[in-house]
Amino acid sequence: MHSNDAFGPAYFQKYYFSRKTRVVTPAEMRTRASLIAAILRQAQIPVRRILDAGCGVGLLRAPFQKSLPRASYTGLEWSDYLCGRYGWTQGSIADFAPRQPYDLVVCYDVLQYLDDRSAARSLANLARLSRAAVYVSALTTEDWRDHCDQALTDRAVHLRNAEWYRRRLAKHFRHLAFGVWLRKDVHAIWWELERADARATGAARGAGALKGTVVSSRRALRARARPRPRRRADR
Questions:
Q1: What pTM did the predictor assign?
Q2: How far apart (Å, rounded) are the C-alpha atoms in residues 32 and 187?
């Protein structure tokens, strides 16, 4: 677990508020929230409670309020500074234990900053935190090798292949699309040609189709490639 000492106002001014040096934009997060909400609406999964685990400065809060207006939002953070400024719930995704589970748990760009043991604990805890869906995104070995701009990406991470994450998520969830996973005991309306298919995805990856799609856009590449703050280990 990282110390809070380095993550005061100057740090977040540099990485989140300054237009010149920030690592993610509000527009990117609006798109992400809209996508997650659209997938869950299409699957007819009601969302009334959202946990944003590692919420940072809360760039997903307003977009979720717009996309899922009937849902309450809880931000989970480790930083003393951010919890004091924004009123987030302080804690770690690895051992957070609320009284009631959430309909949707978001874990965006957090897990690559955890060692294997802590990341595995966090993934296992998702099954306790969510009673319906999770959204998980983390930098993988494949992303580092094939998709991201290594000159811009933060190297101080624990790289693991995508299958390492999928195996652990698949114990309790099934993948819908674009990083959205649904608990195996939750029924969803998902037509056969709309759902992710492991065999088709593997064939496309083997042919190089996915790589060409991902790296063709410089802007899309930079969204993952910007230097992520090292602090995000327990957010």
A1: 0.81
A2: 24
